[in-house]
């Protein structure tokens, strides 16, 4: 059996029991992206909850996959 999930705006057909990692692998393959960067991508569900790459998926889920955000480094100066 298969199920459909959406990664960003791309609808994907995956096997029943697939994980976030499986969806990312399919997404990166379809979009011809460098799969070596996949592990660093942050994934959230349709409610904005961050998902682990080992998290199970279910029919109709909508995922957002993004490269990691650059962290802004803040330097504090303490006055004497």
Structure, described:
This protein has one helix spanning 20-30; strands at residues 2-7, 10-15, 42-44, 50-51, 62-66. The chain is of the alpha+beta class and 80 residues long. It has a single domain (2-66), classed as Phosphatidylinositol 3-kinase Catalytic Subunit, Chain A, domain 1 (Ubiquitin-like (UB roll), Roll). Strands 2-1-5-3-4 form a 5-stranded mixed β-sheet, with helices on one face. β1 and β2 form a beta hairpin. The protein is elongated. 16% of the residues are buried. The model has no long low-confidence stretch (mean pLDDT 91).
Helix content: 10-25%
Helix and strand succession? EEHEEE
Radius of gyration: 16 Å
SS elements, strand count: 5
The CATH C-level name is Alpha Beta
CATH architecture: Roll
Summarize model confidence as the mean pLDDT: 91
Provide the domain count.
1
Low-confidence parts lasting 5 or more residues at pLDDT below 50? none
């Amino acid at each position: 059996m298969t199920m459909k999930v959406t990664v960003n705006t791309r609808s994907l057909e995956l096997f029943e029991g697939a994980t976030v990692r499986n969806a990312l692998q399919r997404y990166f393959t379809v979009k011809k992206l460098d799969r070596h960067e996949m592990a660093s991508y942050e994934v959230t569900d349709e409610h904005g909850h961050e998902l682990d790459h080992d998290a199970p998926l279910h029919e109709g889920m909508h995922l957002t996959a993004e490269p990691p955000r650059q962290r802004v480094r803040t330097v504090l100066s303490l006055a004497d």
